[in-house]
Amino acid sequence: MNRQGWLVLLVLVAGLGWAQECRLLFQDQGLFLHTAPLSGGELSLVRLTPEGPAFVTLDPESAAVTQEWVVPGGVWFLHPILAVGPEGRRVVVLVPLLDEGWKPNQLYSQVLVDGQVKWAALRGARLEVWPVGGEAPLWQVELGMLRSMGFSPDGEWLVTITDEGELTLWEAETGQRRGEVTIPQHLNWFTFGPGPDRISVGTMDKVIRSFGLPDLRPVGELEFAERTWPPVEASPTGSLLALLEDEYTLILLDLTSGQVLHRWTTFPEPVAQVVFSPCGELVAAATTAGTVWLWQVAEGEELGRLDVAGTLPPGGLLYLSLAFWGEEKLLVTVSQRLRLEAGLRAWFTNSQGRVLACRLPVPEGAP
Question: Which of 78, 102, 106, 343 has the CB geometry, 3.0–4.6 Å to 110, for a possible disulfide?
């Protein structure tokens, strides 16, 4: 990227006081899904390519790509199902297992085979855990279709949830199955917490259930007035949850007491993602229309909104994701479609991804 890429975008949000510098760190063709800071100062970026998911390491000072690794394999779901572990060291991906021919009552899906899109019959899926940059997975296992999966904050555990409501706890390093429980009440979400030794799940019957680690023994239930929905994010201590009461209403829930501490609305824009700052003092949310909201956890005060979509050239907004970069900056990853053209490779090459670093507003009264 040339030096013209080092823009400084001044984003003014009328009446809300978040007039902050957003620096363009990196841009390129393709669909960018996720960016996260690494402890060494570099950034980890996930983007989609016709060959599969690619993991890119960026030097934020020079905007140089220091490493790029595409997950080996030639068959993917059209929208890859994956989760990234802490520090970008591991990734878990779900690989479709194809069946020959067309059969009654069989599951079909759009898949990406050697860069080409096709409809295919599925006989299942294989879970693969890879070390980023590796030549072979650490372990793999054939499963049914998954509703959700993710790593624990310390990277020790991996949780998978099937469409049938089977929740399984795995050792991320070895693939050893440590616990399993079936929850028939239709799982909506899961998260680690409250505390480091529990996992909590939300179900359609308006109950939040907690299980102990690693044996997944039931340790508590919390009845809630409404169903709760993803996206869900636990605070760094695991004691608070930010999750959706409906698509426009984000609530901050104390998992220990069951008390709703704050309710925030983003109407008329549905919430797409929510994240806590590393110290747990701030919550940021991104909407499907490209607005970023920021609140204080303690008082529930809104600190401002950032119109990310308004900083972009004309084109359709595809993805927007957030990650705090320390306590003073927010990484905003944006992908947009620039031209409407048919074909998968045109879909990738006619899309552009950007990584922005935006300074956070200083709350009133702060030193």
Answer: 78
Q: Where are the domains of the chain?
A: 7-359
* CA gap 304, 322 in Å, rounded: 15
The percent helix, strand, coil of the chain (3-state, each to 5) is: 5, 60, 40
- Whole-model pTM: value is 0.86
Q: Decide: residue 239, CB within 10 A, 0-12 exposed, 13-18 middle, 19+ buried.
A: middle
Residue type, 115: G
Kindly indicate the confidence band of residue 4, based on its pLDDT and cuts at 50, 70 and 90. Answer: very low
Q: Summarize pLDDT for 177-223 with one digit per residue, the tens.
A: 999 999 877 788 899 988 888 999 988 888 889 999 999 999 988 88
Instruction: Say how far apart CA 41 and CA 222 lie, in whole Å.
Output: 40
Q: How far apart are CA 317 and CA 331, in angstroms?
A: 17
Sign for the CA dihedral angle at 167, 122, 272, 31 comes to positive
CA dihedral 154, 32, 9, 284 (to 10 degrees): -40
Structure tokens that stand for 298 in this block = 């303690």
User: Hey, what are 278's tokens?
Assistant: 């590393």
Please give the structure tokens belonging to residue 357. Answer: 């670093």
The tokens describing 111, both together, are 């898949």
Angle of CA points 71, 74, 355, to nearest 5°: 40
pLDDT of residue 344: 57
* Cβ atoms < 10 Å from Cβ of 182: 10
pLDDT in tens, 306-329: 888 877 777 777 788 999 999 889
> Which of 273, 275, 279, 276 minimizes the C-alpha distance to 291?
273
* Largest pairwise CA distance in the chain: 67
Among residues 198, 223, 186, which one has the least CA distance to residue 208?
Answer: 223
Residue 128: strand, helix, or coil: strand
CATH class of 7-359: mainly beta
Residue showing tokens 């299980």: 211
Half-sphere exposure (Cβ direction) of 274: Cα atoms closer than 13 Å: 28
Q: CA-CA distance, 297 to 295, in Å (whole number)?
A: 6
